[in-house]
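Note to self: user wants both folds in one dump. Writing first protein now.
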Amino acid sequence: MRVLVLGGTGEARDLAARLVERGDVVVSSLAGRVSAPALPVGEVRTGGFGGVDGLAAYVDGSFDHVVDATHPFAAQITGNAVAACDRVGVPIVRLQRPGWEMHPLAGSFTWVEDIEAARVAAEGLGVRPFVTTGRQQLDAFAGWDDRYVLARVVDPPEWEVPASWEVLRARGPYPYAGERDLLESRRIDVLLTKDSGGALTEAKLTAAHDLGVPVVVVRRPPVPEGIRVVATVDDALGAVGAKPA
């Protein structure tokens, strides 16, 4: 099988390794938004495709299957991938880790629809926020220049954050002890995050609960119609199948 994996996640790297191991030809595509990303095995390309037209042209005649294993919040590339594959008749499957809707503590979270709603909700819950929603929308909180803000990102923001902020550059996994220490040492009183799911960043939810820190969670964007969604790498392998002899 010739498989295009739209990646950048740990699941995408695991899938690429498993596909290569079983003898498939794999190209992993990374958006290029993170410096020094962890690279999967097999061929890797970096950068955009030029929208639906560019992706359709790239896939057509070159791949037997596409697996969209991008971040749960990479809604634009997912939508483009569905449209492109539909146009050229190449099957596509969405590999997406389960979210935190079924987390044992989910009922205690404040769930919101977008970053702006997260900002508003957090302002009613605390004054020393820990922002873990990612670098790209961090400027939505730029108005918080009158308070301490702890922001955790992989790459530094591309704008000058207020002097009262602390920007912590780190990459998961984040163990429980470290998360609890971070919340306590910075006297955090509200945590903001996205429903990324997965075990790499889950410990902060438990640490916040144990310390009585309220949690604001941005819901995931909906998955486009017309794409099969699987939750594990094994399921993705089964969905891709094998090319007939």
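First done. Writing the second protein, which came from a different request thread.
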Amino acid sequence: MVEKHIVSAFDEDIENIQSTLMKMGGLVEKSLFDASEALVKSDLVLAKLVRENDRTIDELEEEINAQTARLIALRSPTATDLRDALSFIKIASNLERIGDYGKNMAKRSLVMKPSSINEQGCRSLRRMTKDVIVMMNNGLDAYIRKDVNLAESVILQDQDIDQHYNALFREFLTFMMENPKNITTCMHLHFIAKNIERVGDHITSIAEQAIYVATGEYPLDDRPKVDATADIKGNN
């Protein structure tokens, strides 16, 4: 009976941390979505709100770390249980960084001036953001369900994000070459696109954690990256 109670208490602790992790994931998703909306609509109020709400995401990461430390100290998990516990900290860290990218997007939307290029670029960035949100939801779902196939598909989805970033990079570079007056706006847009591309990398890390928790091993192959901007940068 005592052993059964201990197992039950451990499972409850795991569920509580997972619940906090999913809450954090929901707030991060909202941060990305709101930041992209603020960008497209030049909504300064929403942009400021995104920046302010980032504190809550940071606090949830701290809470997850504290809950996990307490779990390890009191329950002394081993093997699979220990993988679960350690993954909480790593995924919370990835989500916190994604939240920072959402905050950075909002920050740049506060200083960008309306223009036709700005409007066109922001719509493209919103589509890219929606893609990474879908990718993040799949990554977290794969983690909770310990679904290796879904996690592997998330890792492959990162190639689409990379290709979208590459296309935007070339587009912004063309605008800058056509008219030097476009440089400031296009630099802001490029940094936002790069932030979204980095979001994809962090989601890939979450998917890798899902595979590790489910199998005890990380994916053997290096994640595929499609960065066609390197050659262009090197030739400038």
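Dump finished. Worth passing along: The two ends are 70 Å apart (CA to CA).
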